[in-house]
UniProtKB/TrEMBL annotation:
Superkingdom classification of source: Bacteria
Domain YhcG N-terminal: start-end pairs: 15-96, 139-189
UniProt name for this protein: DUF1016 family protein
Any one Gene Ontology molecular-function term assigned to this protein's record: nucleic acid binding
Stretches assigned to the YhcG PDDEXK nuclease domain: 212-364
Length: 380
């Protein structure tokens, strides 16, 4: 082939591959929605028969056995999973699945419909209703089955569950990532950093930026012994870059470490530099050991000014600075940021989540464990 023909052929091949992948993605989403619809309907049928016939939970093991015998090629009908189907229906009894064919009616009392949240079909853009007691069909049918199971089994509070469900859909969390984020209670930390965004960014942009920052950040994947240096922290984060990016949140793209800026014949180095794909701006991260100090804000203001001047494109939003410290005084941080003209946030970071005081006080100390072991050895 001639060069022009080869280029045209590669373009054609690329277009076909893109369309195949898009079709595969749509097929996967459709298959997942149909599976969720089926499991919910099975739960609905079982609940209706239990209510009408007075059957107890004993019917489920028999169903699991008979389904395995009658449909040996079908997976997913274990006793445990059928119980999950029933629970899924009881959690969302008023679900209206976007089915190709209408579901046959099932006689149910009003009790179930009154005691649980509504799920109604809505456009994909309206993922979660403004009412804390509802969930959109786009959200319900866009999440894989086992993600639903984790959400139901680990989170009783519905608004919190809906928040995590939407994060799964928006950020593409795997099951393991979802479980870790729930364990680390990320919903309590999101949007709680000290910032000056309300005075340095347009209102809509400020709200989005504020919602993306956490406080504290949890780096429990690091194993650093106290005392450690900032460079050791930086190295550890980059050695676990994927987990670090997950903790930062959706949209962060890594640009560089110890990123060099030249100003007036002097070199300055940024600890970490990111670009946020949704905010359309650079994000400078400065890592600090110990307490937050007011002078950190002035230094970050300088960094943001230089990045805006040297790296920012005309279409980019203003650069954001994020100062991560082990601890901070919120009032001190608010004063330090008050008259700064660049958008900056201050947040803590933790290497491990602290145990609740009630639990920590009930655990034995190292001395207690050593004494107990010594006593047992003497008894032996």
């Amino acid at each position: 082939m001639k060069t022009a023909e080869l280029i045209a052929y590669r373009d054609l091949l690329g277009d076909i591959k893109t369309r195949v992948r898009q079709a595969q993605h749509r097929a996967a989403l459709s298959a997942n929605a149909e599976l969720i619809r089926l499991y919910w309907d099975i739960g609905r049928l079982i609940a209706a028969r239990q209510e009408r016939e007075g059957w107890g939970a004993g019917v489920i093991p028999r169903l699991a056995l008979d389904l395995r015998n009658e449909l040996p090629e079908q997976k997913g009908f274990s006793e445990r999973n059928i119980k999950r189907m029933l629970r899924f229906f009881r959690e969302y009894p008023r679900l209206q699945p976007p089915a190709a064919e209408p579901m046959p009616p099932v006689e149910l009392s009003q009790t179930l419909e009154q005691q649980a949240p509504v799920i109604v079909p809505q456009p994909a853009a309206q993922l979660a209703s403004g009412d804390a007691g509802t969930m959109s069909a786009a959200l319900a049918f866009g999440i894989p089955w086992f993600h639903h199971i984790i959400l139901i089994e680990k989170i009783k509070d519905l608004p919190t569950r809906l928040w995590y469900a939407q994060q799964v859909l928006e950020q593409g969390w795997s099951r393991d990532t979802l479980a870790v984020q729930i364990k680390n209670r990320v919903h309590e930390r999101q949007g709680s950093a000290v910032t000056n965004f309300s005075t340095t960014l347009p209102e809509a942009h400020a709200a989005l930026a504020q919602g993306l920052l956490k406080d504290p950040y949890v780096f429990d994947f690091l194993t650093l012994d106290e005392p450690f240096r900032e460079r050791e922290l930086e190295t550890g984060l980059l050695e676990h870059l994927q987990r670090f990016l997950i903790e930062l949140g959706r949209g962060f793209a890594f640009v560089g470490r110890q990123y060099r800026l030249a100003v007036s014949d002097r070199d300055f180095y940024l600890d970490l530099l990111f670009y946020h794909l949704h905010l359309r701006c650079f994000v400078v991260v400065d890592l600090k050991i110990g307490d937050f100090k007011p002078e950190y804000a002035g230094k970050m203001n300088f960094y943001c000014s230089v990045v805006d001047d040297q790296l920012r494109h005309p279409q980019d939003a203003p650069t954001i600075g994020l100062i991560l410290c082990q601890t901070k005084d919120r009032i001190l941080a608010e004063y330090a940021l008050r008259d700064i003209n660049k958008p900056i946030g201050v947040a803590d970071y933790e290497l491990t989540r602290a145990l609740p005081a009630t639990l920590a006080s009930s655990l034995p100390s190292i001395e207690d464990l050593e004494a107990e072991l010594s006593s047992n050895l003497k008894d032996d």
